[in-house]
Amino acid sequence: MSETMLKVRDLQAWYGESHVLHGMNFEVPKGEIVTLLGRNGAGKTTTLRCIIGLLRQREGSVTFMGEETIGQSANVIARRGIAFCPEERGIFASLSVRENLLLPPKVAEGGMSLDRIYELFPILKKRGGSQGTKLSGGEQQMLAIARILRSGARLLLLDEPTEGLAPVIVQQIGEIIGNLRDEGFTILLVEQNFRFAERMGDRHFVVEHGQVIDRFDRDELDGNRGKITGYLGV
Amino acid sequence: MMDLLGIPLPVLMGQLLIGLINGAFYAVLSLGLALIFGLLNIVNFAHGALYMVGAFVAFLLLDVLGIGYWWALLLSPVIVGLFGMVIERFLLRPIADLDHLYGLLLTFGLALLLEGLFRQVYGVAGETYAIPDSLQGGYNLGFMFLPTYRAWVLAASIVVCAATWYLIEMTRLGATMRAAVENADLVRAFGVNVPLLVTVTYGFGVALAAFAGVLAAPIYSVNPLMGSNIIIVVFAIVVIGGLGSIKGAIISGFLLGLFEGLTRVFYPEASNIIIFVVMAIVLIVRPAGLFGKAA
Ligand SMILES: Nc1ncnc2c1ncn2[C@@H]1O[C@H](COP(=O)(O)OP(=O)(O)OP(=O)(O)O)[C@@H](O)[C@H]1O
Ligand SMILES: [Mg+2]
């Protein structure tokens, strides 16, 4: 097995008094796409918010490239080379498409060039001057992914990038994410859409009630579809 | 003699000029308030006091160290801006997660403290600050006399407002600030040190107030109460422009200054309250302000 990029051990998290993560354990090998699957409210988004440091009430261990990040704040963790694409996409209304794209600062060398980004997402070049939130849902999702590619971060946290999008757009986003893996990005993908997740992921972790309750590698999926759809309640 | 609606033109123009000058101070002050409100979500009640401190720093630089107007115009905003950054870092940041009412009360207390302090030392009579030699005199425009210093105040305010607008709307730093106003967490998750950005923004906002204070020193007397006299009007202007709107603060600052001047010509009895009347009307018709985004 290749080098581990991200390792999560006994991760606990709270929103005020409410305890929502009860010891998450999983790891993300370098260069792979790993998915977190689970029903609504299982704790997938919370896990990503802990990794990037937005949720401060967290305990346990999250190591990125061998270094502990659990006590650090989001801006410090991001500078280590982790990029976050939130579930609600987070396109800024007071910024143009181009300003949204250029917003995240460089955190490391080797980010994707603007030319390559425009090659992957031609619409962003065409609509560069529009207000960010004037884009369609699918275009906003493209922008949300595109803007974290320039920074030089090597680990991408993608929270339900296909949520609420038409099948043809989901197809395009799948191709883009595949491209990103081919270009060497490591991706932690949160999904409820199992058909999308199984196509993209190299390994899958099933989350329920704030814990990982099962895991499958790509080649283990065939015999376990019934079990997985049972977990996801689909 | 030329006149308009029975008002001699020089009188009209003179009042309009005074209105425009007041508008220049309103614009620079409400601009700083708008910036601070955008990122910190508090109405900075200390703004007027820091404007007054800006004027006093200019006075003290001259009186104690013999440093003149031009250097004061640079140094006073820097000194007051740094002071503001200390206030933000050590007083406002620790309560940033509490209800915004606490921030408002804290800045209000700070304003009282600063005013009390300067009153204790300088009384309420105020000190005079001479117009620098290079800005003495004036121009005869034919229909009115334009004092050089007032022309300078107007030009300097317009340049400062335009430059600030450019910084916020046209640069990458400005885009980062606008984004942080919308969603500070996400901007942080991109690796931006938002707390530092907030500190610097507060410092910049109060530096603008100090700049206005230095501009004001030769026009009004340098007086511990000069801040509280003007700040209530400035709050009204920020509300009229739309809380947090940069463009709204600048435009309504100048416009309401002018409007106040016009009122002084045509219906002087109302000139002290006209801005509040406008505020009431705007709040009824467009609660988010002229340039504010409806919530
Ligand atoms: N801001 C919050 N305050 C309090 N509780 C929260 C908050 N956000 C989420 N929760 C709770 O934490 C639990 C985990 O939520 P989380 O958003 O991580 O789920 P999720 O797996 O991402 O779900 P979804 O698939 O619907 O996005 C849920 O029970 C949710 O109600
Ligand atoms: Mg979620």
Ions, cofactors and other bound molecules = adenosine-5'-triphosphate, magnesium ion
Largest interface, with counts of residues having CB < 8 Å to the other chain, equals: A-B, 24 and 18 residues
Adjacency order of strands in the biggest sheet of chain B: 1-2
Uncertain ranges of chain B: none
Task: Write down how many β-strands of chain A occur, each being a DSSP E stretch of 2 or more residues.
Answer: 10
Strand content of chain B: under 5%
CATH architecture of chain B: Orthogonal Bundle
Number of helices of chain B: 11
Strand order of the largest sheet of chain A: 6-7-8-3-9-10
Order of helices and strands of chain B: EEHHHHEEHHHHHHH
Q: What value does the average pLDDT of chain A take?
A: 93
Oligomeric form of this entry?
Answer: heterodimer
- CATH fold name of chain A: Rossmann fold
Per DSSP, the total helix count of chain A is 9
How would you sum up this structure, described in words?
Chain A is an alpha/beta fold. Chain A has a single domain, classed as P-loop containing nucleotide triphosphate hydrolases (Rossmann fold, 3-Layer(aba) Sandwich). Helix content of chain A is 32%, strand content 28%. A 6-stranded mixed beta sheet of chain A has the order 6-7-8-3-9-10, sandwiched between helices. In chain A, strands 2-1-4-5 form a 4-stranded antiparallel beta sheet, covered by helices on one side. In chain A, a hairpin with a 2-residue loop joins β1 and β2. The radius of gyration of chain B is 19 Å and the shape is globular. Chain B has one domain: Orthogonal Bundle (ABC transporter involved in vitamin B12 uptake, BtuC). Chain B is built from 11 helices and 4 strands; from the N terminus they run ββααααββααααααα. In chain B, α1 packs across α9, α1 packs antiparallel against α10 and α9 packs across α10. Chain B is mainly alpha-helical and 295 residues long. A two-stranded antiparallel ribbon of chain B has the order 1-2. Chain B has a two-stranded antiparallel sheet with strand order 3-4. The interface between A and B is medium-sized, with 24 and 18 residues. Bound molecules: adenosine-5'-triphosphate and magnesium ion. Adenosine-5'-triphosphate binds next to β2 and α1 of chain A.
